[in-house]
Amino acid sequence: MLSLDSVPKWTKKIFEPNSSELLFPEELETWNRLSDSDKNRYVKKLLTEPIVFEDPWIIYDWYFRSKWSEAFTVIHPGKTISVLEIGAGGNDLIPKAVAKTYPSPLSQYITANLNKELTNIFKAKTKNLPITVKVIEDDAQNIEKVSGTDAFDMVVFEHSANDVIETILAEKNGIDTINSDWMEILPQITEILNQEYQNGTLEQTVKPEFLYLISSCLKVLKPNGRIAINHYQFQYNLDIGLNPDWNENLLPVVRTWINEAKLGKEVIVQDFEPQWWMFLKK
Fold first, then answer.
1. Which of 164, 163, 167, 103 is CA-nearest to residue 133?
2. Which stretch of DSSP H or E encloses residue 63?
3. What pLDDT, in 10s, does the model give residues 135-174?
């Protein structure tokens, strides 16, 4: 597996005096309980192996929150930001990164979330953040009807391009992704995805809807706004049988679809590995 990032950079960064500045007070006790050797070991593991749910989640939060904060400040320097996240599910990583990087009530975060259970989890996790947080319980393809055009500085897919593709497949196969427990239906969706991938029909099945979503996201970006997509691997997905080639190379495949369709203009951001990150300019 190609490393997510530079191991020397992040094993050094984790011991800098301000290393915990993107963590919240309630997270510091967990952070401080880890020994220096544990922090060093777990950050190396995070960057070089599929991510395991049992590992200390604080390391995951610390690294990805730091990485997204880095992306935000490079792409949109300033005191406030407006961010749309596609399919946050129950993950509060992006709104917390926004809250720490642009801690102003004028900063706005919106997510388009369909799954009801995950939406409730998300709302509970983000209710006390010092930014404006909104959840639109609708398909992200309809976001223009809600926000209008030129509404966001950034649209982000935090490990959600795969979720979008899985949702498209599920809907085409009559699986309820709105009212179901996502983790319960994921093995069934994975089986369908594997079959489509092995048969060479996955692109034909999901590409039109996926590209329509990217097109919709470009419309709601402000002039010179960016779409940022990242992907990485979870060991759980491999354990339930997800095709390892697809799991590792999802983003290069998606990149080809987007660039062939001439949607936006891809830009390279220094220190963001293209295997795991893609940035599109409106």
1. 103
2. helix 57-75
3. 987 766 677 666 767 789 999 999 999 999 999 999 999 9
